[in-house]
Amino acid sequence: MKEQFKNGLYPLGFAAAFVVLWELAVRWFDIPVYLLPAPSSVVSSMDASLASHMTVTLLEALVGFLIANVLGLLTAVIFVHSKPIEKGAFPLAIALKTTPLVALAPLLVVWMGTGYSSKVVASMLICFFPILVNSVKGLKAIEHEAWELFSTYKGSKWDMFWKLRLPTSLPYVLSALKISSSLAIVGAIVGEFVGANKGLGYVVLVSSYHMDTPVMFSAIIASAACGLALFWAIAWLEKKVIFWQRVDEA
Fold it and tell me: What residue stretches are annotated with the ABC transmembrane type-1 domain (predicted)?
């Protein structure tokens, strides 16, 4: 517990030093506020409306994140148990991944409007591929000796999945969840850039039109805070779920 507290102080210390240097640099070099606002200006621009926009983006990202990970895991299970489906559908998943989300976002708005659904789907699309790839890899990463043992005792496919494949895949799945946690925020904000009247992406876009850089920075910092909160939540879950895994922190 004491060690964890000490480890938590390092990022706080670095963040505090960065903010102090940022404030001093802006004041020392007299940098115009529209180019780089001081942290004090950014903080003073934060109000209740920012929290409201932050809640909207976080909700869109969370829903997209959950749907993407459930679909990705189910698709991975199907791929592992059906070679023809894996060979046929995996290239489509890769094609979806390589298509830039900024190119798809306007289409999503045309199909679903400027409400929540288009942002949720944008967030879902960007989160889907990491969980799919890592889950397939994890579900296949079973040891040959364990496979032979289950085969010797004539274990069913369900036993093989529940007692062997799924536990083996958990480190891969949780690593994918950590990657997707930050991507979910990116997907929601990209969706808001294209068509929205609320959310952090909307705040960044509107403040850029008015050269209101402090508000823009406050929205960017809020989006980073959302990504960090999601990442830390998954990291905490990883420690609880994969309690047998030794993590070398040296």
Answer: 54-238
